[in-house]
Design goal:
single chain; 3 helices; 12 strands; globular
Length: 227
């Protein structure tokens, strides 16, 4: 199973590299690099927070703020991921739930993504009601195909708060989802994501060209099936 979120967990990856290279007497100043990355993340999320706040003030809906935080120890602060979401439809109570499971990596636990999901989805900018991209009919998508360029917001949106690892619920930390059980069949959700989470999760993939540059986007998912 490949580790996800390589482009996004630069802070954690840099921390691991910093510790490792210190042991190997590497001349690279990883402490300075770590601080630089923290400043980039802080600046980007702060700038786009204003855009998202302005959008929320101009629209109606039952929006909720994501509470997962990012630790920036070199800057001496903790910030939120910057994601907002609105649950539009819950799974039926008698629906057989998909059970998300976790795997352990160098940077903590993350979900083993579902092999395939069938869903309708659309993507919007904050400034237009015309979709940038949509699948209104519904198609099957593979979360495990490393040739896809699904962005991180897909994985965060589908993930639960916690997942099973060797029979125990484990905290997914920075990679935790937005809903308790994760998206299930018949779930429908709308997510406002800063551009930081619009990066493809697999190495070698490019950010979709329909996404706005350095700007938030709105994703809407309606799950038709999951396995």
């Amino acid at each position: 199973m490949k580790t996800l979120f390589k482009p996004l967990l630069v802070l954690a990856v840099t921390a691991i590299a910093f510790t490792s290279c210190m042991k190997n007497d590497d001349d690279t100043d990883y402490e300075a690099e770590y601080l630089k990355q923290e400043k980039v993340v802080d600046s980007l999320l702060s700038a786009e927070k204003t855009k998202i706040t302005d959008y929320l003030a101009s629209t109606e809906g039952n929006w909720q703020e994501d509470t997962v935080t990012i630790s920036l120890p070199r800057l001496g602060k903790t910030i939120k991921r910057g994601i907002w979401y609105e649950v539009l439809a819950e799974p039926a109570e008698d629906n057989e739930a998909y059970e998300y499971k976790a795997q352990r990596t160098q940077i903590g636990y993350q979900i083993i993504p579902p092999s395939n999901v069938k869903l309708k989805y659309s993507v919007y900018s904050l400034t237009s009601s015309t979709p940038l991209k949509e699948d209104a009919a519904g198609s099957e998508y593979s979360f495990t195909n490393t040739n896809t360029n699904l962005t991180a917001v897909w994985f965060i949106g589908f993930s639960p708060y916690t997942a099973k690892f060797e029979g125990e619920n484990v905290n997914l930390g920075l990679l935790a989802g937005l809903t308790e059980k994760g998206l299930q069949k018949n779930s429908k959700i709308r997510i406002i994501s800063p551009s930081y989470w619009l990066t493809p999760v697999y190495s070698g993939q490019q950010t979709p060209d329909y996404l706005p540059s350095n700007a938030p986007a709105i994703y809407e998912f309606e799950v038709l099936g999951i396995e």
